[in-house]
Amino acid sequence: MKTLKVLVVDDVPSMRKFAKFGLEKGFSNVFIDEAAGGKEAQSKIEAVEYDLVLCDWEMPDIKGFEILQWLRKHPVAKSTPFIMVTSRNDKESVLRAIEAGANSYVVKPYTAEMLAQKITAVIESFDRRRYERFNATGTAIIHFHDLIARGNLIDLSMGGLFCVFSRKEPIPAIFDKVLIDVKLEGNVKSNGIEGFVIRIQAAEAFIDAEEVKLAFKFTDLPAEKQAELVKLLDVVKGKS
């Protein structure tokens, strides 16, 4: 799995420690860097390409809001996902952060599970913008924990796929690592694609819904698997 590189910015050591705990609990392959203030954060962002910045609003040197404004104007790092962390929970502050370019907003105190959910949603949204998705008809066989689940494709991209499964099938949990076999019409297929679960939802808004939808994110893939995915997408787009 691709290592998730996160910069945690907070002037309170205990808050940095708790954020690190939440990240390590929620993600199996994560690199966590820390900054004790805004100036240190700017210096590290200049030197390292992060996948996410998790930043406190209230800091003594440079406020988190100012870091956000600076980041969004940065010539290289301006598109880096940014989550504002603060005790401010009023509507005005939330809107101000979102309008300035924050991808999400976490209010203190928060749980490790809440933090992981927020980060997952931001990463998924970022990937959806980066990878064009296409409606797909075919099957997906998911291998996990010595179990197998068979589902139907909804959409497919170079970054992941979205499927629907019967609730009678064994269903992996959020963040579970999986191997995915994808098969389209005409026996065009790719087996053993590595990924993990990033979202689970009911297919219908009823407590007794018979199906569930799962979103999977692919991990770093070798050139061979990337070439197979290109062929799959060519079929989906009607180019073959």
Q: What is the helical fraction, as a range of percent? A: 25-40%
CATH superfamily of the largest domain: Response regulator
CATH topology of the largest domain: Rossmann fold
Cα radius of gyration in angstroms: 20 Å
Can you write the helix and strand succession as a string? EHEHEHEHEHEEEEEEEH
β-strand amount: 25-35%
Level-1 CATH class name of the largest domain: Alpha Beta
Mean pLDDT figure: 89
The second-level CATH architecture of the largest domain is 3-Layer(aba) Sandwich
Describe this structure in words.
This protein is of the alpha/beta class and 240 residues long. It has six helices and twelve strands. Helix 1 crosses helix 5 (112-130). The chain is elongated, with a radius of gyration of 20 Å. The two termini are 30 Å apart. The relative contact order is 0.11.
Would you spell out the secondary-structure blueprint of this structure?
Blueprint: E1 4-9, H1 13-26, E2 30-35, H2 38-47, E3 52-56, H3 64-72, E4 82-86, H4 91-100, E5 104-107, H5 112-130, E6 134-135, E7 138-144, E8 147-156, E9 160-166, E10 177-184, E11 188-202, E12 211-218, H6 223-236
Parallel strand pairs: 1-2, 1-3, 3-4, 4-5
Antiparallel strand pairs: 6-8, 7-8, 7-10, 8-9, 9-12, 10-11, 11-12
Helix pairs in contact: 1-5
Q: Nutshell version of this structure?
A:
With 240 residues, this protein is α/β, with parallel strands linked by helices. It has six helices and twelve strands. The strands form two sheets. It has a six-stranded antiparallel beta barrel.
